[in-house]
Amino acid sequence: EVQLVESGGGLVQPGGSLRLSCAASGFTFSSYSMNWVRQAPGKGLEWVSYISSSSSVKYYADSVKGRFTISRDNAENSLYLQMNSLTAEDTAFYYCARDHTMVRGVLDYWGQGTLVTVSS
Amino acid sequence: DIQMTQSPSTLSASVGDRVTITCRASQTISSWLAWYQQKPGKAPKVLIYKASSLESGVPSRFSGSGSGTEFTLTISSLQPDDFATYYCQQYNNYPWTFGQGTKVEIK
């Protein structure tokens, strides 16, 4: 069974940093591209970042470019999101999501999300 | 960035109704469109990809159509489990972008 479990969320002050983790199991993690998607409470979905299976390709939304860094450790079956210079606009549930087996860009498995709250 | 616009934002319907949600892209995306269902407190679940391909395990009452800039998600006979929020997503160009969502409520 495919499982994605996020962790690392919490309350952080504006300007602070946080590192999210996503532990993957039930599939060959090293064969799949991965993504982070966020959702502000009560709002819609916003794609945040993408990383290819080998980490050779990374993409970011303009809203986080230069502040967030996506990475992965295929030996540990883990995905990460380093978030710096956080603002209130970054408050959201953060989901890790796997690229579809057959279709890049379609997100076929999602974690349960971890809440990041940026507030003083 | 490609803007995705869904209509309506909210839809009230009864069990058994045929429901259609529309998604428009600000520029052509061929058939690179997916639909997701999200229930409160849960992660989204993919229903349709490549505009009209049904994801494995998704009931056949869900269908998708369209290409270019106009797309629709149809639920042929609404079931109690279908009351949720639905999102379209384009994956033609980065950044991937989502519609604002359509909430399907009980009438």
Return the structural class of chain A.
mainly beta
Tell me about the largest β-sheet of chain A: 7 strands, mixed
What is the tally of helical segments of chain B? 0
Describe the global form of chain A.
globular
Distance between the termini of chain B: 36 Å
What are its keywords?
heterodimer; A: 120 residues; mainly beta; seven-stranded mixed sheet; four-stranded antiparallel sheet; 11 strands; globular; B: 107 residues; 50% strand
Task: Describe the protein's architecture and organization.
Chain A is mainly β. In chain A, 0% of the residues lie in helices and 51% in strands. Chain A has strands at residues 3-7, 10-12, 18-25, 34-39, 45-51, 58-60, 68-73, 78-83, 92-99, 107-110, 114-118. Chain A is globular, with a radius of gyration of 13 Å. Chain B has 107 residues and is mainly β. In chain B, the strands form two sheets. In chain B, strands 2, 4, 5, 6, 9, 10 and 11 form a seven-stranded mixed beta sheet that branches. In chain B, strands 1-3-8-7 form a four-stranded antiparallel beta sheet, with no helix packed on it. Chain B is globular. Chain B starts with a strand and ends with a strand. The chains are: A mainly beta (120), B mainly beta (107). At the A-B interface, β5 and β10 of A face β4, β5 and β10 of B.
What is the gist of this entry?
Chain A is mainly beta and 120 residues long. Chain A has no helices and eleven strands.
Helix and strand topology:
The complex is a heterodimer of chains A (120) and B (107).
Chain A: E1 3-7, E2 10-12, E3 18-25, E4 34-39, E5 45-51, E6 58-60, E7 68-73, E8 78-83, E9 92-99, E10 107-110, E11 114-118
Parallel strand pairs in A: 2-11
Antiparallel strand pairs in A: 1-3, 3-8, 4-5, 4-9, 5-6, 7-8, 9-10, 9-11
Chain B: E1 4-7, E2 10-13, E3 19-25, E4 33-38, E5 45-49, E6 53-54, E7 62-67, E8 70-75, E9 85-90, E10 97-98, E11 102-106
Parallel strand pairs in B: 2-11
Antiparallel strand pairs in B: 1-3, 3-8, 4-5, 4-9, 5-6, 7-8, 9-10, 9-11
